[in-house]
Design goal:
Helices cover 42% and strands 14% of the residues. Helix 3 crosses helix 15, helix 4 packs antiparallel against helix 8 and helix 11 crosses helix 13. By secondary structure, it is of the alpha/beta class. Strands 3, 4, 6, 7, 9, 10, 11 and 12 form an eight-stranded mixed β-sheet that branches. Strands 1-2 form a two-stranded antiparallel ribbon. It is built from 16 helices and twelve strands. It folds into two domains: 243 residues, Cytosolic phospholipase A2 catalytic domain, CATH 3.40.1090; 55 residues, no CATH class.
Length: 373
């Protein structure tokens, strides 16, 4: 007996049966295709682009020379940041790097002695800080170019604090060294800077390691260099003080003249400093040595208190901000024996910056694809 043919499907069943057979393959999933009518064409997929690398250079006074070593070693690995944001000393090193003159800076600061550093400190007690900074930054301007930020190949920002409101200010236009100087006005040490009608203080007061600034400038991967993770309680280490005392008392200034300056009841006038800066400066700095270390080993000196306060504040603020916006990579140089004003120890700091990058080489290369050399 013949089996009757099934009745033709109707409705949804008819549509289901009308669909053509197809086979799902892995290649079909991997290769997107554009379908026009009955024609399917492969779609060209652009090759993955390397991430935009941002470098957040933190505040930390003399320890900031380690930023130089970090950048030089990153370049040696083929990792070239396209975004640089800096606070305080980080803004200064970042500015010189963005201007393409980092090696020149490394050579200069590596040769600095205690006497050289003191010679760059134009001391004042009438301008909102102990050091005006004019001599230091005019020396920078003589040694390094000062292009406008907007003309640079890299994206750069200097992080500052507006004195009147306490707001965080990012300077992303204008002469780059001027922008960096505005971020370096450490309260009580360097005088504030007036920028576009507003007094600016050190950016470390609001954003010690500017990860958020790098993000805003377009960074996909942020490498943060945190100089404040290991607190330093002394403004000037005992070894540094002894070295300074030896250099200050060295030749060319008769002891009688030094004693006369020290017992003269105050600083020499601006005119006197201008006529004989070396002699007057040495006299003043011998006087300052007394503030750097207390005669009582159990009692902190003036600058011990200032340095410890700055470090504690910036460390706590950095932890808070980085918890909310963590970088992909955090680098912490081992410079716990560096004091606030150890600018003459640049060579060791640069070496530690290089060693720090080598210690994290695998992690860095995993996040930041090295550019073609």
């Amino acid at each position: 007996m013949a089996t009757p043919e099934p009745a033709p499907a109707e409705g949804a069943d008819a549509k289901k049966d009308a669909r053509p057979d197809f086979k799902l393959t892995w290649s079909g999933l991997r290769r997107p295709r554009a379908v026009t009518g009955d024609v399917a064409e492969d779609v060209a997929v652009p090759a993955p682009q390397p991430p935009v690398i941002g470098l957040a250079l933190g505040s930390g006074s003399a320890r900031g020379w380690s930023h130089i070593g970090v950048i030089l070693e990153l370049e040696a690995l083929g990792i070239r940041p396209q975004v640089v944001a800096g606070t305080s000393i980080g803004a200064l090193v970042g500015a010189v790097y963005a201007a393409g003159q980092l090696q020149e800076l490394a050579d200069w600061v590596s040769a600095l002695t205690v006497r050289d550093v003191m010679g760059l400190m134009d001391v004042t007690f009438t301008g909102g800080g102990m050091v005006r900074g004019e001599k230091l930054f005019s020396t920078f301007a003589e040694r390094h170019s000062n292009p406008n930020i907007e003309d640079l190949a890299l994206r750069y920002a200097s992080v500052c604090t507006e004195m009147a409101s306490g707001r965080e200010i990012w300077i992303t236009q204008g002469p780059i060294l001027t922008a960096a100087r505005a971020s370096c006005a450490l309260p009580g040490v360097f005088t504030p800077v007036k920028h576009q009608g507003r007094w600016m203080l050190d950016g470390g007061l609001v954003n010690p390691v500017p990860v958020s600034t790098c993000r805003a400038l377009g960074a996909d991967v942020v490498i943060a260099v945190n100089l404040n993770a290991q607190l330093v309680g002394a403004h000037w280490s005992r070894a540094s003080r002894l070295q300074a005392e030896q250099e200050i008392a060295a030749p060319s200034t008769p002891l009688a003249e030094v004693n006369a300056i020290n017992s003269g009841g105050g600083l020499p006038s601006d005119d006197a400093r201008g006529r004989n800066d070396a002699r007057a400066g040495r006299g003043f700095w011998q006087k300052v040595m007394g503030y750097l270390e207390s005669s009582d080993p159990d009692r902190p000196a003036l600058f011990d208190v200032v340095a410890a306060s700055v470090n504690i504040m910036q460390d706590r603020l950095t932890r808070s901000r980085m918890a909310g916006d963590p970088p992909e990579i955090t680098l912490v140089p081992l410079l716990e024996d560096y004091a606030l004003m150890d600018f003459h120890r640049a060579e060791q700091a640069i070496a530690e910056g290089r060693a720090l990058v080598r210690r994290h080489e695998a992690e860095l290369c995993a996040w930041a694809q090295p550019a073609a050399r």
